Amino acid sequence: MERLCQTAGVSKRSMYQLFATKDDLVAESLRVHGPAIVTGYFPASDAELSPRERIRYVFERLDEQSGTPGFYGCPFVNTAVETRDPDHPAAAVARAFKDQLTAYFATHAKTAGAGDPEGLAVQLTMVFDGAAVRAVMRGTTLDGAATRTADALLAAAGVQ
Amino acid sequence: MERLCQTAGVSKRSMYQLFATKDDLVAESLRVHGPAIVTGYFPASDAELSPRERIRYVFERLDEQSGTPGFYGCPFVNTAVETRDPDHPAAAVARAFKDQLTAYFATHAKTAGAGDPEGLAVQLTMVFDGAAVRAVMRGTTLDGAATRTADALLAAAGVQ
User: Which range marks the domain in which residue B76 is found?
Assistant: First the structure.
């Protein structure tokens, strides 16, 4: 908190007038910076991509990002894991962004004709998070492993 | 560090005589407690299980554990994510335990006749980690999602 106030050039008193607790500050930071992070993983809505390609796009970006300097995985996962408390305000924000990703997968899985698009979407989300964690743990490129795993799940679900 | 010394009933001086840095202490804690955690996810070596069942066993335990009180996901993932530094001594310990899980998957995937057992093992490890993260973020049961995802990957890899 001290370092944060110093960097921001505000007094602790001012900081606590803006944010009732440190937890609220973390949650608000995620809420403000989240959309820009999400945007980088989604294709333009008018991109000429099939539903299957729209799903793969997300994993291709993750594979690409992994191992690059300054990549620290998924900030939503990282924050939720650090709090280790589903009731933490920041965990709620993290879940909301994660649900957005799952809904994106479900929408396109449904269009692509998956038998259980919601189930597939949860599976794909877990692969995304597991791949992000792997990249953080190793600090090296995923070497396409995220996309390959998504491909396997899409194949198993009969999505062409 | 203060709370740790208080709980352990030792002086800071003694603590730093045992562990040169706080990082070393975290790494050592993971090294000491890791094996017992791993053991809970593996079947007995003389259990009458097929290679495929041995792989599924790990995910069934994770599904079971998720949502139970005191379950905080995978301590290796959590520690590595918190350090956000692959060069941290605790991250190295975390990776070693994770590699043990991947090797277990690879061994049984190979016996089960998977075309690319090492690749499949990495995919299964990512699913394990992603499922563990999901359970931590939500604080609820995975409701079988980890095992279902493993089943889909095993099917895609032609493992019966």
Answer: 22-156
Closest CA to B147 of B77, B64, B70, B72: B64
pLDDT for A160 equals 79
CA A23-A67-A142 angle, to 5 degrees, is 105
Burial status of residue A124 (CB atoms within 10 A of its CB: 0-12, 13-18, 19 or more): buried
Tokens of A93: 């924000």
Compute the nearest-CA separation of A78 from chain B (Å): 6
Domain tally, chain B: 1
Backbone angles phi, psi at A111, to 5 degrees: -60, -35
B88 touches B23 (CB < 8 A): yes
Q: Which two tokens stand for residue B148?
A: 């279902």
**Do the Cβ atoms of A84 and B152 come within 8 Å?**
no
* Residue count of chain A: 160
Residue A32: CATH number of its domain: 1.10.357.10
Provide ipTM, 2 decimals: 0.95
Give the count of alpha carbons within 13 A of B43, CB side only.
Answer: 18
Task: Give the pTM.
Answer: 0.95
